[in-house]
């Protein structure tokens, strides 16, 4: 078992917010679903000309963004193309390009990741003129998260010392009051659990009385499903299912997303496992730590980042896939489209009808611009009753970062151990909540 204490890091344009644990803490605060008015959905077929109401002016937006000059965050040679369902990958061949991946979300449209042999901007200009193409945009890079690791124990403050800083603090520390006293490393994560009142919430809500587990999701570098703190008291994995948009151990895109076997570890970074532990590490199991939602929780894990980073397509194709699966899980098992669950365990397809109003998904990444494909996948998630819980960024500035600044998401800032705003955390009027974000000890 590996557990690590990780400190905050810098956040750069189009760079993942590394280990902003505040977002993971806040994921359990998800409330009623809210979102954009969804456009560009439905089973439309037949002939199209690009753009228009079908994609909220995405064609125009993509052209304007691309016309601003060279963007260092573009994934050179790669484009994301949205097309009507009748469009096949063959249309790209004549334009000296080839489809690397195809995603069908069964809504009348398909999304291609296309690699150009020549100039990608020229390819996009040409493909936009073809029948059935709704938009074409560059694929944008996300840097690999770089964790700052420390083996030192976070500073312990006595209840008296804590009360002098924050009079409303719980006393005694949360892990000392009987909820998770069987977790040998829990005291290393104690301050965050106490500040978030997580354990007090579990006293008011007896998870053992719940009819169904709480579903929560994460899109990150994957999850180490072998970790002992991701197994419940019956030695069953709390991971409902896991999928990856990238081949194991590489940044090669999957065609399409690939199911990850339970009891396997595809997380070659550690960031996703760390966030997942903060969210849902099992409590009172005599092992490691406990997460904020440490009982009766099922985790859905997506790997959209590798050791070398990721891109708009690798990350947001995961979010689109999650939206499609959650939509099906809200139906009776006998009414579901079984093709949506291809490659996943039978107990996922046969999962009881999901009545949970909101499914939170932790996404600790972002950049200082947003693009049509990313917005569209966020829309699909919100329409499916999924609440994206997004990190505010770690620049210590009041500057918009995306997707945190989008309408309808839960944007999370970070607090320090004295329960005040962390100096590295970004601010802005779009912030929804703050949560513990430094010296967070979690799974790896």
What does this structure look like?
The protein has 444 residues and is an alpha/beta fold. It folds into 2 domains: 3-36 and 144-443, Rossmann fold; 52-141, Alpha-Beta Plaits. Helices cover 20% and strands 23% of the residues. The protein has helices spanning 21-26, 58-66, 120-127, 159-165, 190-195, 198-204, 271-280, 312-329, 346-349, 372-383, and strands spanning 3-7, 74-84, 97-104, 109-116, 133-142, 148-150, 214-220, 239-246, 253-260, 297-303, 310-311, 359-363, 386-391, 410-415, 433-436, 440-443. An 8-stranded mixed sheet has the order 9-8-10-7-12-13-14-15, with helices on both faces. Helix 8 (312-329) packs parallel to helix 10 (372-383). The longest helix has 18 residues, at 312-329. The model is unreliable at 1-20, 29-55, 156-162 and 164-178 (pLDDT under 50).
Offer a few descriptive terms:
eight-stranded mixed beta sheet, 23% strand, transmembrane, 444 residues, 2 domains, alpha/beta, single chain, five-stranded antiparallel beta sheet, serine-type endopeptidase activity, Alpha-Beta Plaits, 16 strands, Rossmann fold
Overall number of structural domains:
2
Structural class by helix and strand composition: alpha/beta
Report the order of strands and helices.
EHHEEEHEEHHHEEEHEEHHEHEEEE
Alpha carbon gap, first and last residue: 8 Å
Total beta strand runs: 16
Major β-sheet strand ordering: 9-8-10-7-12-13-14-15
Biggest sheet character: 8 strands, mixed
Any idea of the CATH topology of the largest domain? Rossmann fold
How large is the share of residues in beta strands?
Answer: 15-25%
Which value, in Å, is the CA radius of gyration? Answer: 22 Å
Oligomeric state, counting identical vs distinct chains: single chain
Portion in helices: 10-25%
Could you state the CATH homologous superfamily of the largest domain? Answer: Peptidase S8/S53 domain
CATH C-level name of the largest domain: Alpha Beta
Transmembrane segments: 12-31
Keywords: Hydrolase, Membrane, Protease, Serine protease, Transmembrane, Transmembrane helix
Domain Peptidase S8/S53: 216-438
Protein name: PrtPII
